[in-house]
Amino acid sequence: MFKNFISYALVLIVLFSVNIMTFSTTGQAAERKLETAEYKFYKFKGSSYEDVRLDLDYAITGRGIKVNGVSHISDMLTRTGKDIGRTKKIYDHAEAIQFCSATLSRNMMEADPMNIVFCPYIIYIFSFTNEKNVVYLGYRKPPHLELPASKKAVAAVVKTYEGIIADAQ
After folding, report:
1. Superfamily assignment of 32-167 in CATH?
2. Which of 18, 50, 73, 122 yields a CA-CA distance of 20 to 30 A from 95?
3. Which residue from 67, 134, 61 is spatially nearest to 96, judged by alpha carbons?
4. Which helix (H) or strand (E) element contains residue 111?
5. Of all residues in the chain, what percent carry a pLDDT higher than 70?
6. Is 142 left (phi over 0), alpha (psi -120 to 50) or beta?
7. Cβ–Cβ under 8 Å, residues 72 and 100
8. What global pTM score does this model have?
9. DSSP secondary structure letter of residue 69
10. Does the N-terminal peptide bond of residue 143 adopt cis geometry, omega within 30 degrees of 0?
11. Which residues of 130-144 are buried (b: 16+ CB within 10 A; e: fewer)?
């Protein structure tokens, strides 16, 4: 277990170092990475945030999946930034769309009850103030799992994320 902790700590140190090198002194990304080991994003050009957001809802519910909740991230940052004296606007719009699929969840939990940590499933959608008609959609990548049934269940979740995002364009 201690060996795993050391490995995890080294990964975090490397990621932190890479992030420091990636950002300029103004805090703006020199070049945004759309995919890392932890996340994957798609950049949509030529559509408004509202249009992509509506298409995302249809892509989720069209699969018979229920949207459980929406976290209004940009609103929260704006509201709380005033309280801590940090009012720089990061996003024009940013939300986390939480949803649940009975089939995906059942398969995940039957494979290993500890896979509960992967629920709910979340797709992130955001836009930046300095990029008009550019919208990003993405998700956190599930980690590599050892049990074959868990691997299969995670693959189905990733396939669902990818399908929903493809349908939202």
Report:
1. TT1751-like domain (3.30.310.70)
2. 18
3. 67
4. helix 102-111
5. 82
6. beta
7. no
8. 0.80
9. E
10. no
11. eeeebbbbbbebbee
